[in-house]
Design goal:
This is Polyketide cyclase / dehydrase and lipid transport. The protein has one domain (32-212): START domain (Alpha-D-Glucose-1,6-Bisphosphate, Chain A, domain 4, 2-Layer Sandwich). The protein contains 6 helices and 7 strands. The chain is of the alpha+beta class. Strands 1, 2, 3, 4, 5, 6 and 7 form a 7-stranded antiparallel sheet that branches. The model is unreliable at 9-16 (pLDDT under 50). Helix 3 crosses helix 6 (192-212).
Length: 221
């Protein structure tokens, strides 16, 4: 009897997650128009199995938001999320609280690493200062983004788009486009969606907090 009740409760939770929680987290902060909008980089993963668009308003111009985005990376500024969670799996990440000049240089073709040992990451596919950074999951041994017809048979695109609302306000969009060529991989990866939301939401709030801080004034002469 107890097992039956647990099964019913589990089924109700799963139904609630699919109908309420999942749609909410996959479009956290974004309007209908923003969810449907085309963004730079979308075409790099055609016909995705899943498209996730999250958005946040930042009380700072794009020029103050961009430096935090361009220095993303495990061996650079970190990801402004829950470092302790990332480090539980050995990523050795520390999120920066300042803009570092040495981390401001990034170009198309560079790798943004997911861990300090540089065992994984994303290739920069598109970069427009103060506007957009587009990353695609890397096949590092091949020296290019991974394709859905190889290895685990999936590909992943991650884009950061800045749009000014007025001279002092920016809308930040973080979009994920994921495509699978394997039912097994798609099934195994399904729970990661919720983890991604938790970490991405914290990252977006971390970027917002940092960008909204008053700029440091130069020392008095």
């Amino acid at each position: 009897m107890r097992g039956k009740r647990l099964a019913i409760a589990g089924g109700l939770w799963l139904a609630a997650y699919e109908r309420v929680v999942k749609p909410w987290q996959q479009r956290w902060g974004a309007t209908d128009d923003e969810v449907d909008a085309s963004l730079v980089g979308d075409s790099l993963v055609a016909q995705p199995a899943t498209q996730v668009t999250r958005a946040i308003t930042i009380d700072a111009p794009p020029a103050r938001v961009w430096p935090w985005i361009v220095q993303l990376g495990a061996d650079r500024g970190g990801f402004y999320s829950y470092d302790w969670l990332e480090n539980l799996v050995g990523l050795r990440i520390h999120s920066a609280d300042s803009i570092v000049d040495a981390w401001q240089e990034l170009n198309v073709g560079d790798v943004v690493y997911a861990s300090r040992n540089r065992s994984g990451g994303w290739y920069v596919q598109e970069l427009r200062p103060d506007e957009v950074l587009v990353l695609k999951l890397a096949n590092l041994p091949a020296g290019r983004p991974i394709r859905r017809d190889e290895k685990l048979r999936w590909e992943f695109l991650w884009s950061f788009t800045l749009r000014p609302i007025d001279p002092n306000t920016t809308r930040l969009f973080v979009r994920e486009r994921v495509a699978f060529d394997s039912v097994i991989t798609r099934t195994v990866m399904a729970p990661i969606g919720l983890v991604s939301f938790v970490m991405t939401r914290r990252m977006m709030l971390g970027i917002k907090t940092r960008a909204e801080r008053p700029p440091l004034l130069p020392p008095a002469a």
